[in-house]
Amino acid sequence: MNHFLKFRVNAPKVVHETIDGEVVLVNLEKGDYFSLVKAGADIWNGLTRGLSRGEVGLKIIQRYEGDRETIEKTVNDFIEQLQKEELIVVDTGNEISNNNISSAQTQAIPNAEKLPFEPPSLQKYTDMEELLALDPIHEVDEQMGWPSAKIKD
Question: Taking a C-beta distance cutoff of 8 angstroms, is the pair 117, 35 a contact?
Answer without folding.
Answer: no
